Amino acid sequence: MSAKFCLFIPSKILQIEKHFSHKLKRWITECSDQKSTESDLCNYSFLQLSDFVNQSDVNADLPEKIYHRYHVIDWGFYFPPSHILQNFLVWLADIYIYGEIGLLKYWSDSLKRFPPIKIVEVNHNIADFSVDSLPLDQIIFLPLKQFYETG
Questions:
Q1: Interhelix angle 82-95/20-34, nearest 10 degrees
Q2: Which of 22, 102, 109, 145 is buried most deeply by CB count within 10 Å?
Q3: C-alpha span between 123 and 48 (Å, rounded)
Q4: Source organism's superkingdom (predicted)?
């Protein structure tokens, strides 16, 4: 059992950008090449939200109505530094400015001994945002528009 990190991205991005998976791989590869210490950035899973929730080590209590609205990029044990995550969110906002991005630090435990993952309402500001400050097992949604405006 240990903490993991993932992003919930609007499924609409995949409708707008038909080659999103390819562009995601390219963005990650370019970022990893620039920052040779960031090789763990390349180790991710790209899943539909329903597939993420159905994993044996994920304990989630999410409304089914959002399952079709989000996909998940799960970096597992890798927690990107704030500047890399910020650059990634700006890149996503360039594709689709109107959605919300979900950030989640969660406990991975096949015995599901921890409280279920849930959505929380938090007013986070980009200025005070970091992966380290995320609460455990709570999805925080932020509008992509604010990342577009900072890019």
A1: 150
A2: 102
A3: 26
A4: Bacteria
